[in-house]
């Protein structure tokens, strides 16, 4: 029985014409069959289904282009016919029809399976993979007409295989095209964004546009994904887009080369390439593909000429050791070779595969290497600049407090403008070193600076720790502001005296005299802002509250106070518990018509003084009231009584001195 089958199969093969194909023992899971050998070709006619074949014009192999054969004219029509004998019992076979710009209709066993012809001149994309009849014999008729392209016939053969295998191969091609499209478009947008962020990088703009154009072009070739996305798009329009992307890409690339690697007569070269490409672009919009294809060879020659110019420029720069030119030359060489391959393939000089997408990918990779190198250099420069700016800002903040910027709602010093200001309530503190003049007279200028800086570097952190900031250094004094309120300023004043005790202890051990301070605190409305002119500005505080605070600090020496606070500050202290405060009186301040109520904060006195002041606080404040009522004798008796028990109470001594020297406050002032 087996022998009979072999004899019958051999008999059928002998009966088949030499144009038929016998397909046997094929591993369909891993292989496909190209219909490319010994096809019957009937020139200038469409062979109908079931029609008795006339005399065969020729037996041909695919690829076949009748326009290259002297026996046929350039424009025309024809029919390809063959029979395929398959093993029986093969299910799930399909046929894949390659992209063809010519009009065609594919019949198998009399059934029309695939066609891109929609009547008249209209041709559209048609499904590439279609199931075929489940029969052991396939009678294939393929009608072709090149009414739109001067290449007549078939550039690629139909392929038979399992539908799953054909779709897998098709999807691989689509995925590769999509990947290439995404890589080119993203690269183009990235380079364009570089230009828009830094306008002097014109080469980035032209390379970015070049990459975007190539990205669009990838959808027009290979698996023709644009036609899959827009099935109703005519093949004529797709061909026009293919021409336009070609005519745009060449001038963009030459401009990229000219901008990146300037050369003599670059303007002449660019004018030539833009003029010719512009003319061809206009032709592409006006004329159909069948006319453009006749002119394409001249533009391809034109492309090769300018490619040679670009190569010469890159080679010369590469020989000079320019790394950018070396990398660009490497990528461009591969792109040029693949482009020449596709030009020769389009002209049917060689029979290879479409390689330009791979060349473009390699070229993009080389530019990506350059991009990563430039990014690394830019990042390094940015880091160095950032470090420098950070150090510069830190230096600026030594002159302009960060809190000053925050209050003005300015992120950086450079954001400050002349006249920026804000009005708000704050607590002000003035601090002054007592008897600094006598101290400085005993020191050299260098020792003076060392002493002042040594003192201030201990006081500054205390102020900042308590929520304040130093507004001004005034020789031997400090003016500081406390946005968060009176409580923080009072605590800062007490902490300053604690720090002073430690500092004086170190000075004593080194054989230096201890120093004394006077601190005045006031609370009120102020204007904080910038004054000066455009070339020289300064931050300052303008307010009567500041003047009062300065005057309050100045009387601390007169009354022997460590810390003096105004009534406004006293009334704004929320946490009075634990604070030792007594009323000093309404005191005439220099430059003020009305006296100002002043209080003494004596927490930082020695323990004996604190106990005495607490014990005689009521008597002292009664004495102050008698003094202000001009009952000087009674006031004198009260202060004298206190001094008997507390001989170091300096405010009592000061009031007795005023009484004895007849230094009285005018009655009308007290009434006011």
Automatic annotation (TrEMBL):
Keywords on record: Membrane, Transmembrane, Transmembrane helix
InterPro entries (alphabetical): 7TMR_DISM_rcpt_extracell_dom1, A/G_cyclase, Adenylyl/Guanylyl_Cyclase_3/4, Nucleotide_cyclase
Cited Gene3D superfamilies: Nucleotide cyclase (3.30.70.1230)
GO molecular function: adenylate cyclase activity
Ranges annotated as spanning the membrane: 174-196, 203-221, 241-261, 268-289, 295-315, 327-346, 358-376
Top-level taxon of the source organism: Bacteria
Any one Pfam family match given in the protein's UniProt record, by short name: 7TMR-DISM_7TM
Residue span(s) of domain Guanylate cyclase: 427-553
Biological processes, Gene Ontology terms: cAMP biosynthetic process; intracellular signal transduction
Alphabetized SMART domains for the sequence: CYCc
Keyword Transmembrane carried by entry: yes
Protein name, UniProt field: Adenylate/guanylate cyclase domain-containing protein
Organism: Thiospirochaeta perfilievii
Upper classification of the organism: Bacteria, Pseudomonadati, Spirochaetota, Spirochaetia, Spirochaetales
């Amino acid at each position: 029985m087996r022998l009979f089958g072999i004899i019958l199969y051999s008999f059928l093969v002998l009966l088949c014409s030499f144009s038929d194909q016998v397909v046997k023992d094929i591993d369909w899971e891993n292989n496909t069959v190209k219909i490319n050998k010994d096809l019957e070709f009937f020139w200038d006619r469409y062979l109908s289904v079931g029609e008795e074949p006339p005399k065969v014009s020729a037996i041909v192999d695919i690829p076949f282009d009748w326009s290259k054969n002297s026996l046929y004219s350039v424009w025309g029509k024809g029919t390809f016919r063959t029979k395929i004998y398959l093993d029986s019992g093969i299910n799930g076979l399909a046929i894949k029809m390659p992209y063809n710009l010519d009009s065609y209709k594919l019949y198998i066993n009399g059934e029309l399976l695939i066609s891109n012809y929609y009547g008249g001149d209209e041709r559209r994309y048609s499904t590439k993979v279609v199931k075929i009849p489940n029969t052991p014999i396939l009678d294939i008729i393929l009608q072709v007409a090149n009414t739109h392209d001067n290449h007549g016939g078939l550039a690629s053969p139909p392929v038979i295989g399992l539908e799953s295998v054909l779709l897998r191969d098709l999807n691989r091609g689509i995925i590769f095209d999509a990947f290439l499209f995404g890589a080119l478009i993203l690269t183009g947008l990235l380079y364009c964004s570089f230009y828009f962020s830094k306008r002097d990088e014109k080469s980035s703009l032209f390379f970015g546009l070049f990459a975007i154009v190539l990205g669009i072009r990838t959808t027009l070739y290979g698996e023709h994904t644009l036609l899959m996305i827009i099935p109703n798009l005519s093949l004529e329009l797709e061909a026009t887009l293919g021409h336009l992307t070609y005519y745009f890409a060449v001038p963009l690339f030459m401009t990229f080369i000219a901008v990146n690697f300037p050369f003599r007569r670059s303007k002449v070269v660019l004018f030539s390439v833009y003029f010719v490409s512009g003319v061809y672009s206009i032709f592409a919009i006006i004329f159909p593909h069948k006319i453009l294809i006749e002119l394409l060879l001249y533009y391809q020659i034109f492309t090769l000429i300018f490619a040679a110019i670009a190569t010469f420029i890159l080679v010369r720069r590469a020989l000079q050791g320019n790394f950018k030119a070396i990398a660009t030359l490497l990528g461009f060489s591969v792109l040029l070779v693949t482009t020449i391959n596709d030009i020769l393939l389009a002209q049917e000089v060689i029979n290879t595969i479409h390689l330009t997408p791979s060349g473009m990918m390699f070229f993009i990779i080389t530019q990506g290497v350059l991009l990563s190198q430039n990014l690394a250099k830019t990042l390094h420069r940015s880091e160095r600049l950032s470090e420098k700016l950070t150090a510069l800002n830190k230096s600026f903040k030594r002159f302009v407090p960060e809190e000053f910027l925050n209050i003005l709602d300015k992120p950086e010093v450079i954001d400050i403008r002349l006249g920026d200001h804000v009005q708000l309530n704050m607590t002000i503190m003035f601090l002054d070193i007592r008897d600094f003049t006598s101290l400085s007279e005993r020191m050299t200028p260098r020792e003076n600076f060392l002493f002042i800086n040594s003192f201030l570097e201990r006081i500054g952190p205390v102020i900042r720790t308590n929520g304040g900031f130093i507004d001004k250094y005034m020789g031997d004094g400090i003016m500081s502001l406390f946005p968060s309120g009176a409580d923080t300023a009072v605590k800062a004043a007490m902490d300053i005296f604690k720090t002073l005790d430690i500092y004086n202890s170190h000075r004593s051990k080194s054989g230096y005299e201890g120093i004394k301070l006077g601190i005045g605190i006031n609370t009120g409305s102020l204007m904080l802002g910038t004054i000066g002119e455009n070339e020289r500005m300064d931050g300052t505080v303008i307010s009567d509250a500041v003047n009062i605070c300065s005057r309050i600090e100045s009387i601390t020496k007169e009354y022997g106070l460590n810390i003096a606070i105004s009534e406004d500050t006293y009334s704004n202290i929320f946490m009075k518990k634990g604070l030792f405060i007594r009323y000093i009186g309404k005191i005439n301040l220099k430059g003020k018509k009305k006296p100002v109520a002043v209080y003494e904060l004596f927490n930082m006195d020695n323990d004996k003084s604190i106990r005495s002041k607490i014990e005689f606080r009521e008597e002292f404040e009664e004495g102050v009231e008698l003094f202000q009522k001009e009952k000087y004798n009674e006031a004198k008796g009260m202060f004298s009584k206190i001094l008997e028990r507390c001989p170091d109470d300096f405010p009592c001594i000061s009031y007795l001195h005023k009484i004895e020297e007849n230094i009285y406050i005018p009655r009308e002032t007290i009434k006011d």
